[in-house]
Amino acid sequence: MDMTTKAPLSASTDVQRIVDTRREMLPIKWELSLAPLIRFWTETFADDGSAKSAFASIIQNELVKHPELTGPIVDCGELAKHRELLHVLMAVVFAPAFFEQEHAAALAPFQLRSFYATPPARRLFLDSEGYLQGRVNLDERIAGVARLLSAYKLILRRVYGIEIEGELPLIITVPDPDTGLDRHFKAAFDHRFLDVTTVGEPPVLTDEVKSRLRGTLLEPALLLATLPPEKFVIRGFAVLRAVDVTEQEVLSSIKRDLIDKESIVSTSKFQELQTKLRTLLRRPDLTLGLAAITGEQILVINYGAQLDHACIFADSAHIKVSDYAGTIFGRAVRERAPVFVEDLAAKPDRTPIEDEIARMGVRTIVVAPLTYQGRVIGTLDLRSPHPGDLTGGHLPMLLEVLPLFSMAVQRSMEELDNRIEAFIKAKATAIHPSVDWRFRQAVLRTLDRRREGGLDAQLEMEPIVFPDVYPLYGLSDIRGSSIQRALAIQADLLAQLGRAHDVIESAHGAKALPALHELLYRVDKHRATIEHGLASGDEVGIIAFLRKEVEALFNHLQTFGPTVQARIDAYRTALDPKLGVVYVERQRFEESVARLSDAISVYIDLEEQAAQEMYPHYFEKQQTDGVDYQIYAGASLREDGVFDPIYLKNLRLWQLMVTCGTARRAHQLRDDLPLPLETTNLILVQHTPLSIRFRFDEKRFDVDGAYDIRYAIVKKRIDKVLINGTTERLTQPGTIAIVYTQNSEAQEYRRYIEYLQSLGYLTDGVEDLDLEELQGVHGLRALRVTVDLKNPRADQPIALAELAHRAN
């Protein structure tokens, strides 16, 4: 059993309390005596003619005058009468050269009362009566047992020559009288000036008992039974020597504290951390601050234990990283090294933020970056109202704790991220990365309001609205997909009805049952009806009819002979095994739509990744019979608020080039499809910005405000709009229709069209068309251009650098 295991400081016991409750706990008789020390003088400095011998003779002569010092000392007060002689005697115990620096004291045997101590020990460890004061790292029970075992170890060594290794490390914690901060000392007891005498013959220890004593590490019950305490007397005094281990103890304690996930967000636990840092740096008025950097935001985790959170909330969510540019905080993050300002009031180039800190009474401030896996995740700052309170000399100790706080901040941020993600998923499912910051901000504020209202408070997330954003809408639609789908359904139903006709006709030929002839009539009637076209509900009605009226008879009809059985087998073979219907033409149609839509969708996704590099923006896409996508760009969508019209021009030109690419890819894929399909392409231009709001019930963004609803109406109806005064649709295969309302929009896009014609993306010529009026929407116009479907350059990746130059 390892007896060097350290008990935590939190399990401390007041030393004085041990004195009061354990004075009679040691059953072994003890006597305070200077006899072992006097013997040391007489034996060590024998009459050898040296100066030491002469000095020892003087001491002997003095002791002859004061014989009370050579026997048991009952009252420590008697020693005060012989202070000068005691100083001389103790010179071999406490080196005079270190007397004013060493923390040491002479104690009664296995008691906690001192009769002689160095000035530092007397100042820190002793009360007015000479008893040790402070806290120890052992609880009351263990402290009492440790004292008993220590006495018996001395008995075994001195009487039986048995050495027992192992000591419980003793840490004494005392407040510094000057600062009020705790100081921690590792204490060790020196027993060389203790004698052990026996009362009568000492008990005999067999080899078995000796082995057992070593094996059990001095079990108290075994010791008391084997070595009765009344058989021994301990005389002399013990020496306590204490070494300051405040730095090691505080660092270990901080490390243990920071393992707790609440350590930096709980008021009480953060207060303890702040106190321990004050102790570590010996500065009683320090204030600790912690902040995390997440994206473009700075979140204050705790400052001076003023916050009381179960996690990191949004008290400082409004603070941007850019706000700290040029400050000591920004410098610490930029240089990735602690920055010391010994007197903020004397700093000549203070920023407004630093001015505010100075007005708070801060004179000394240290800001250190917190790093995790090579990136800065936050800052730790220490502030003091005293100039010069912290200097570069404190840097080594500061560097010791920074990694510990970095891990705690990272853990807290991961916990916060998990809570935010769970909240967002519950309210909004997947969120585009470009607006993730805004949802995180909203969740932080919601959690903060919930904290203020109590854990049971049911709060909805605040509205997510982005004002003044520019929309870009694009659509690549499969031409006539509804008609093609209806034709495919019609063909499959006719094929299945034809198979049913064959079965019923064959069965009626085998047995001329009038019911079969009537059923045959109804099958043919359905065939005749849908040959002229499908009506709403025809598909569902016919499939239900076939299953209930026709297929339900198959098990009986197959007994009518092999010819009927063969027709039934042919019918069943024609059915899709999963759907239970003829699904040949629909399969060709669905496969063709899927392949074409997937090809367009993948292409747009790849180009969209490149467009995000030009300027981060919101992007959403829907894939049905074709692909339509929506882009929003603007300052409010960016956490840093950066936006310039050049980015909008880039995106518009990029969109036109991508639309050329989708048209070309659809054309290349057409002849390889099971059913040749063609696509049409449309771009909707909106010159003025609008506001968008996240609809939590629909889990998507939509325009916000009555005026902006017009844009949403146009989006829904524009794909089937006709050219004014004709029956011709605006959208045609191989072309791009650009719908607009303002002449300035047309002028901008004519520049882009001219540029792309020069590159061979588009053929020459531009149609400028008036469009029919839509319900609630007037004044729509369109430019229509033809894509050069044979130009291989349109297959090359878009060059972003060139695109930015041309757009400008």
Q: How many strands in all?
A: 24
**Beta-strand fraction estimate:** 15-25%
The shape, in one word, is: elongated
The unreliable regions are 1-13, 15-24, 307-318
- Average of the residue pLDDT scores: 84
The level of helicity is 40-55%
Output the structural class: alpha+beta
Summarize the biggest pleated sheet. Answer: 9 strands, mixed
Distance between the termini: 79 Å
Number of helices: 24
Task: Evaluate the radius of gyration.
Answer: 46 Å
Give your account of this protein's structure.
This protein is an alpha+beta fold and 808 residues long. A hairpin with a 6-residue loop joins β3 and β4. α15 packs antiparallel against α19, α15 runs antiparallel to α20 and α21 crosses α24. The strands form 4 sheets. Strands 16, 17, 18, 19, 20, 21, 22, 23 and 24 form a 9-stranded mixed beta sheet that branches. A 7-stranded antiparallel beta sheet has the order 1-5-6-7-10-3-4. The protein contains 24 helices and 24 strands.
Question: Layout of helices and strands, plus pairs?
Answer:
Layout lengths: L12 E2 H8 L6 E4 L2 H10 L6 H15 L17 H7 L13 E5 L6 E4 L1 H7 L9 E2 L3 H21 L9 E6 L6 E9 L3 E5 L8 H9 L4 H7 L5 E5 L1 E7 L1 H14 L7 H15 L5 E8 L2 E7 L24 H8 L3 E3 L10 H8 L4 E9 L2 E10 L10 H34 L7 H18 L11 E14 L2 H30 L3 H18 L6 H13 L3 H4 L4 H13 L9 H31 L3 E7 L1 E8 L11 H26 L8 E7 L4 E6 L4 E5 L4 H9 L17 E6 L2 H17 L7 E4 L10 E6 L13 H8 L1
Parallel strand pairs: 2-9, 19-22
Antiparallel strand pairs: 1-5, 3-4, 3-10, 5-6, 6-7, 7-10, 8-9, 11-12, 11-15, 13-14, 14-15, 16-18, 16-19, 16-20, 17-18, 20-21, 22-24, 23-24
Helix pairs in contact: 9-10, 9-13, 13-14, 15-16, 15-17, 15-19, 15-20, 16-17, 20-21, 21-23, 21-24
